[in-house]
Specification:
The complex is a heterodimer. Chain A is of the alpha/beta class. Chain A has helices at about 65-75, 105-110, 120-135, 155, 165-170, 180-190, 245-255, 260-270, 270-275, 280-290, 295-320, 330-335, 335-345, 355-360, 385-400, and strands at about 1-10, 15-20, 25-30, 45, 55, 85-90, 100, 140-145, 200-205, 210-215, 220-225, 325-330, 365-370, 375-380. In chain A, about 40% of the residues lie in helices and about 20% in strands. Chain B folds into two domains: about 1-125 and about 340-360, 2-Layer Sandwich (Nucleotidyltransferase, domain 5), CATH 3.30.420; about 180-330, Nucleotidyltransferase, domain 5 (2-Layer Sandwich), CATH 3.30.420.40. Chain B is about 45% helix and about 15% strand. The chains are: A alpha/beta, B alpha/beta.
C-alpha cells in the first residue's frame, strides 16, 4: 500500500511516499518558504534514492499551491501514486483523540479547534482540504501528535484548577511530539527485544526548536512535559518552558494586559535565545561554555537548559518505575553527546551509567551508549516522523 | 525567657507565647481581620490585635517579654538569616515592597506596631525565603532573559525555609551526617518539596511566588503559561481575577469542589477526593524524582509542617513507588514541631547572641 505522508510546517510542506508495510520510501521532498515572495524564492527540494537533492525554484503562495507542485512531481515517476494519504496534525483537539479517517465531521472538528496549534494546524488543515479536492477518490487519515498521549491518565493531564473552569475552557494537558516519541519508543523496544506492551522508558525528544520528555509505561505515554500548549516544560530554543504563574501574570500587567505581547515574548524570545541573548541554538552555548572563552551568559544558558532536563529525567524515571531505557532523539538528542553526558551523570541511583567513549562516538545511530553493566540502557535513536505517520495510517487502513 | 511568636497571614495573625524551656505555649491566639479590610487598614488591625494580645499576656504573667519573633514570608535577597528589627532593617524591608506587595507592607506595619506595643522588647524577623537566597544559579533562574528577571527579582525562592531548615538539621543529626542528601517534604496548606544537601537546598518546588510548585489546598501549583494567559484574556477574570482564581480557588479545593485540607485529601477514603489526591501525589512523585536527580542520590525523606501527622500514610505510598525506581527503601523521618516552636527557637538563639555581643562590648 503506497501511503503519501504530509508533514506541514508554517511555511513548509514535507512529503514522503512510502510503500507499506515494507517502509520503503518511493519518493520524498519538501516545499520550502511557502507564502508571499521573500528575499529567497520558494522552492521544492526533491530527495530521490541515493542521489543529491534537486532544488527547483517555483513560486508557491500557499499550501494548496505547494501541494499542486508536489503532485506534479509525483506524476513524473511512474507507479508513484498514493493509495492513501496521511496528514500530520500537531493537535487533534478534544474530540479527534486518535488517528482517524477524515470525513466531513472529523474535518469540522479539526477546524473548530485549530487555534490549539495556531502556527501548525491551519496550514495542515488547508492541505487536507486541498487534497480532498484534488483526490476526491483517495481516502485520507489524520495522524496527530496528541494521539500518542491519549493514554496519559486523568490525574496526570488535569491541572489543579476549578474543574468547572477547566471543563468550560477546555483546559487540560495534551502533550506533544507524540509521533516522534512513539517512533523511537517502538524502535528501542525492538532493538532491545522487549515486547512493546511491557516496555518502560523515558523518551527525550530534544529538537533544535521544541523539546519534550515522555514517560512511557507498557509502551504507552503516561506523561509529557509539554502541557495544554507546547510552551510548558523544558527550556527550548525560544520557549521559556515552566514559568511561575505569578511571573506570567506580572508580565501581563507590565504590558497592560497585552496577551499577544507576552505570548510572543515567552514563545519566540525566551528559552535559549532569551537566556544567552545571542543564539537560539543550545549547541552554541554548550560549545562556548566548554571552551576557553567562557561567556557568563552562555555558561548560564547551558546550565539552566541542562538542569531543567536533568530534573525532568529524574521526575519521569520516578513515574515510570524501573525503566528499561532512556532514549535520546531529534537534532540535539541525536548529535550532541555533551547533552546526554551532562543529563545522565550522577544518576547512578536510577541505574544509569553512561559509557563516555561510546557516547562521544555514537555513530551511526541507533547506538546504546550505556556501560555494559548499566541496568537502565541509554539509547541515541534517530527519529523518523514520516515513517511513524505511515505506520499509523497503515494501521488505521488495516483496521477498517 | 518569655517569647511571643507571631505568624501574620493574609487575613489573620496567629500568636503563641512561650516560657523558658517549655515547648508548649502558655497562650495561643488567632485574630482574624474583618473581610472588607484593605491592606492600608492593616496598621490599625496589627496594633489592635497586639494590644489585645498584650492584655492577655499581662493576665498570664508573661510580661515583660524577652523577645518577639515574627515570621516573614518574603525577605528577598537582602535577608539571608533571621535579624533583629532596627530602623535600618525596617527601611531595607520596606524597599522590598514592590517585589511582594501583598506581604511586605503588612509585615513592616506589624513590626512597627509590635515595637510600639512592646517598646522594650527586641523583635526578631525570620524569613521563609532566607534559606533559598543561595540557591544555585541554574535552579533559581527561569528560561527567560536574565536581565528581565534580575531587574524585578523574579527568581525562584521557595517559601517554607523555616520548616525545611529545621527538618534538615534534625535529619542530619539523626542520620549522623551533616551532608546527607535529603528530600524535605513540608506538609502545609501550600506544600513544598526541597532537595537539600545537609541544610543547603539545591532544588525546590516553590517558585518566584508560592503559586508555583505542588498544588496546595487552594493554589494551583505548576501551570502552562499559555493557560494563565488564556484564563486572564479569554476568561471573565482579567489579570487580578486570574491571580485570585489561581491562588484561592484552585488546588485541592478546585479539584474536589470544596475546601479540603491536605491531610484530609491524603488520608480520607472519600471517593470524591480521589482526583485531588491523585493529582497531588502525581506532582509529589515527580518532584521527588527531580529532587533525587538534583541531589545525585538520596539518604532520607523528612516530613514537616502542620500535617506531618500524615507522613506515615504518605510515606508508605511514596516509598513503594520510589522503590520501583531506585530499587531500595528510603528512610522516613518525621519532624513534628510547629511553626511557632521554630519561631521561638529562632528568637531564643538570636536574643542569646545579641546578649553575648552586648556583654562583650
Amino acid at each position: 500500500m503506497n501511503i503519501l505522508v504530509f508533514n506541514c510546517g508554517s511555511s513548509s510542506l514535507k512529503y514522503r511516499l512510502i510503500a507499506m508495510p515494507g517502509e520503503k520510501q518511493l519518493s520524498g521532498g519538501e516545499a520550502q518558504r511557502i507564502g508571499p515572495p521573500t528575499a529567497k524564492p520558494s522552492c521544492l527540494v526533491l530527495q530521490r534514492d541515493h542521489q543529491q537533492p534537486e532544488t527547483r525554484n517555483i513560486p508557491m503562495r500557499d499550501h494548496a499551491e505547494a501541494l499542486e507542485q508536489v503532485v506534479r512531481v509525483l506524476r513524473e515517476t511512474p507507479g508513484a501514486m498514493p493509495e492513501v494519504i496521511g496528514h500530520r496534525l500537531v493537535n487533534g483537539g478534544p474530540t479527534v483523540t486518535d488517528h482517524s479517517w477524515i470525513n466531513d465531521s472529523v474535518l469540522a472538528e479539526l477546524i473548530a479547534c485549530q487555534d490549539l496549534a495556531p502556527i501548525h494546524n491551519p496550514p495542515a488543515i488547508a492541505t487536507i482540504q486541498a487534497c480532498r479536492e484534488m483526490f476526491p477518490g483517495l481516502r485520507q487519515v489524520v495522524v496527530s501528535d496528541t494521539a500518542y498521549h491519549r493514554t496519559i491518565p486523568l490525574y496526570a493531564r488535569t491541572y489543579a484548577l476549578p474543574q468547572a473552569v477547566s471543563r468550560k475552557m477546555g483546559i487540560r494537558k495534551y502533550g506533544y511530539h507524540g509521533i516522534s516519541h512513539q517512533y523511537v519508543v517502538t524502535e528501542t523496544a525492538r532493538l532491545m527485544d522487549i515486547p512493546l506492551d511491557r516496555f518502560h522508558a523515558v523518551s527525550c525528544h530534544l529538537g533544535s526548536g521544541g523539546a519534550s520528555l515522555c514517560a512511557v509505561v507498557n509502551g504507552r505515554s503516561v506523561d509529557n512535559t509539554m502541557g495544554y500548549s507546547p510552551l510548558q516544560g523544558l527550556v527550548m530554543s525560544t520557549r521559556c518552558g515552566d514559568l511561575d504563574p505569578g511571573i506570567t501574570l506580572r508580565l501581563l500587567a507590565d504590558t497592560l494586559g497585552d496577551r499577544g505581547a507576552v505570548e510572543s515574548r515567552l514563545n519566540n524570545k525566551s528559552g535559549v535565545l532569551g537566556l544567552s541573548g545571542r543564539s537560539a541554538d543550545i549547541r552554541d552555548a554548550i560549545e562556548s561554555a566548554s571552551g576557553d572563552s567562557q561567556s557568563g551568559r552562555d555558561h548560564l544558558t547551558a546550565q539552566v537548559y541542562l538542569w531543567r532536563l536533568k530534573k525532568y529525567l529524574g521526575a519521569y524515571l520516578a513515574l515510570v518505575g524501573r525503566a528499561h531505557a532512556v532514549i535520546f532523539t531529534d537534532t540535539i538528542g541525536e548529535t550532541v553527546p555533551q547533552v546526554r553526558e551532562a543529563v545522565c551523570s550522577g544518576m547512578d541511583l536510577f541505574g544509569i551509567a553512561l559509557d563516555p567513549q561510546r557516547n562521544a562516538s555514537a555513530h551511526p545511530l541507533p547506538v546504546d551508549v550505556a556501560t555494559p553493566r548499566s541496568p537502565v540502557r541509554v539509547w541515541a535513536v534517530r527519529t523518523n516522523e514520516e515513517i511513524s505517520i505511515a505506520r499509523s495510517v497503515y494501521q488505521v487502513s488495516c483496521e477498517s | 525567657m518569655r517569647i511571643l511568636t507571631i505568624n501574620p497571614t493574609l487575613r489573620s495573625l496567629t500568636a503563641s507565647a512561650f516560657r523558658d524551656g517549655n515547648d508548649q505555649p502558655i497562650l495561643r491566639r488567632q485574630v482574624k481581620e474583618s473581610r472588607d479590610a484593605s491592606v492600608s487598614d492593616f496598621d490599625g488591625f496589627g496594633a489592635e490585635a497586639l494590644s489585645s494580645i498584650s492584655s492577655s499576656l499581662e493576665s498570664a504573667g508573661m510580661l515583660p517579654l524577652d523577645a518577639i519573633a515574627v515570621r516573614g514570608l518574603y525577605g528577598g535577597e537582602r535577608f539571608v538569616r533571621p535579624v533583629l528589627a532596627s530602623e535600618s532593617v525596617l527601611e531595607d524591608l520596606a524597599a522590598l515592597a514592590p517585589q511582594a506587595p501583598l506581604h511586605v507592607p503588612r509585615l513592616v506595619q506589624l513590626v512597627k506596631a509590635a515595637r510600639r506595643v512592646f517598646p522594650q522588647t527586641p523583635v526578631a524577623l525570620a524569613f521563609e525565603t532566607a534559606l533559598f537566597v543561595a540557591l544555585p544559579e541554574r535552579e533559581r533562574c527561569y528560561g527567560v532573559d536574565p536581565q528581565l528577571i534580575a531587574s524585578r527579582s523574579l527568581r525562584r525562592f521557595g517559601f517554607h525555609g523555616i520548616f525545611h531548615e529545621a527538618a534538615c538539621l534534625d535529619a542530619g543529626r539523626k542520620l549522623g551526617s551533616p551532608e546527607a542528601r535529603i528530600l524535605s517534604v513540608c506538609l502545609e496548606p501550600r506544600p513544598e518539596l526541597a532537595a537539600c544537601r545537609g541544610c543547603r537546598p539545591v532544588m525546590v518546588t516553590g517558585g518566584s511566588t508560592p503559586a508555583e510548585g505542588l498544588p496546595g489546598e487552594r493554589s494551583c501549583g505548576d501551570l502552562d503559561p499559555s493557560v494563565v494567559l488564556k484564563l486572564a484574556d479569554d476568561g471573565d477574570w482579567g489579570p487580578e481575577g486570574t491571580s485570585h482564581l489561581l491562588t484561592c480557588e484552585s488546588g485541592l479545593r478546585g479539584l474536589a469542589g470544596r475546601d479540603v485540607s491536605l491531610a484530609e485529601a491524603l488520608e480520607s477514603p472519600d471517593g470524591e477526593l480521589q482526583l485531588a489526591r491523585d493529582v497531588f501525589l502525581h506532582c509529589l512523585l515527580r518532584a521527588c524524582g527531580a529532587g533525587i536527580a538534583a541531589l545525585g542520590g538520596l539518604d532520607a525523606l523528612v516530613y514537616s509542617g502542620r500535617y506531618a501527622g500524615s507522613a506515615a500514610v504518605l510515606h508508605d505510598w511514596l516509598n513503594q513507588r520510589l522503590k520501583q525506581t531506585i530499587q531500595r527503601d528510603t528512610a522516613c523521618l518525621v519532624h513534628s514541631r510547629t511553626l511557632h516552636q521554630h519561631l521561638r527557637d529562632i528568637a531564643y538563639v538570636i536574643v542569646r547572641e545579641n546578649r553575648a555581643r552586648a556583654a562583650a562590648t
